[in-house]
Amino acid sequence: MTVIAVTSDLHFDVTGALTSPAEVTQLLDRIAASRPDALVVAGDIGHPLANFRACLDLMRERFARVGIVVGNHDVWREQAFGSEALWRHELPKAARERGIAWLEQETMRFGTTGVVGTAAWYDYSAAEPALRQEPAFFAAAKPRLSNDAYWIDWRMSDVEFATELRTRLVARLEALERDPAIEQVLVVTHVPVLEQQLRRNPEDFTWSVANAYFGNVRTGQEILRFAKVRRVVSGHTHYSLHASVPRPGMPEIDAWVVGSDYGAPAWIALEV
Question: Which domains does the chain carry?
Fold first, then answer.
């Protein structure tokens, strides 16, 4: 049996304003004490890049195998690098220099289990369906509801970026579905992708709009097509959630959201 520890939303910050080095170290020590076979992180590791690198160093000191996806905070612009440079070059470089799997492009294998990951990004498909608004509405509302509007400076729209990541993920899942050596797949995303991972509050208009930036059910619909996918773990929303997702004619998916919050990082252990 293989045990994979999954954490998310560490928000490692040497100043201690978000999650302090001591709090992250304590979490990683607790995980290491459970002796998992690998650690996987579902994004929002640390910002700026110096914090991101320092957090990866703590992981690498404790775990032989580590895989990561990044979150929206990880690609916030900084003085030395814009969001595009961070996403395309600096963040994957930091991971690979430390022997850490960049799950956006790499697959981890544990016997007959494959682990893939993606930031997933939000494409507004998780907004309350009754709103019936076009993407332009959510793009215009974003500065009032998400700091990403101020801190992400690439030229891609949210829908364009989400589509890029979804296309890449689907191609990898198709390859694993054809691979006779793989019997089951764990998908790790930063943004929740399944309806069962979301909290709905249709009576609250602001909540209903804000969900546009907290999920990507269009990517989830693609994931549901693949029979080998048995677990999906996400972060981003800072609440803890566990649900079973039924699929006609296929095995259920065990879905999680890791309930890490600022100053209170959390983790789960998955037996595969």
Answer: 3-271 (3.60.21)
